[in-house]
Amino acid sequence: MLQLSDKEDAAAADEYSDITLRLLDLTDFDDFMEWFADDNVNKFTSTDTFTTSKEGAMRYIVDVVIPHPWFRAICLNGKPIGSIAVTPFDESDRFMSEIEYELSSKYWGKGIATKAVKMVVAAVFMEWPQLERLQAVVDIDNLGSQRVLEKVGFTKEGVLRKCYLLNGKARDMIMYSLLSTDPQLYNLAPDIRKREKSSCDKKKSHPKRIILRGGYARLEPKELK
């Protein structure tokens, strides 16, 4: 029999269980501003390229979000509360991609980011047969994001010392990865074994990598063709 505290915990879990992913556009601007201008989020996100003003947010949606090859809003009960994206590397490194995510700080610690990352991992490894390595680069002090990746099954590879400029200061970053051959991936994407191996040999073009806030070594949006 559930005790009162157990019932409260179950109710809280149900409250944050309806997590979905969808495309984000200009009609989501007000919701987008909740995490784009969130000081807690921006603590680990570079704002050198895009200011967190309304004008900067509008430019970010138009220049980065809409043309991006795989960018989704993280929605709770249909309302966007964050974003998650997978950016493919250039053609010569098309077997690799990088995942990044942001979540309004009021929703931290509720398992939302972990669920969203699991959903994305299951999707992209199926949608992109050529994908062999999905990586993430996280600030060394961003313990919450590190826990998310580790709970999903990413492997911590090591520390990249002074490799990323965050608001004018060189920062140490931790590299995580998940490979298409990692056994833990099969729990997230059971159909991964069904991918046609021959499809890895097919040529597939992607846009050049572009800047996401908090991204790592990406090209400016103006370089997109």
TrEMBL record:
<protein>
    <recommendedName>
        <fullName>N-acetyltransferase domain-containing protein</fullName>
    </recommendedName>
</protein>
<dbReference type="InterPro" id="IPR000182">
    <property type="entry name" value="GNAT_dom"/>
</dbReference>
<feature type="domain" description="N-acetyltransferase">
    <location>
        <begin position="19"/>
        <end position="180"/>
    </location>
</feature>
<dbReference type="GO" id="GO:0016747">
    <property type="term" value="F:acyltransferase activity, transferring groups other than amino-acyl groups"/>
</dbReference>
<dbReference type="Pfam" id="PF13302">
    <property type="entry name" value="Acetyltransf_3"/>
</dbReference>
<dbReference type="InterPro" id="IPR016181">
    <property type="entry name" value="Acyl_CoA_acyltransferase"/>
</dbReference>
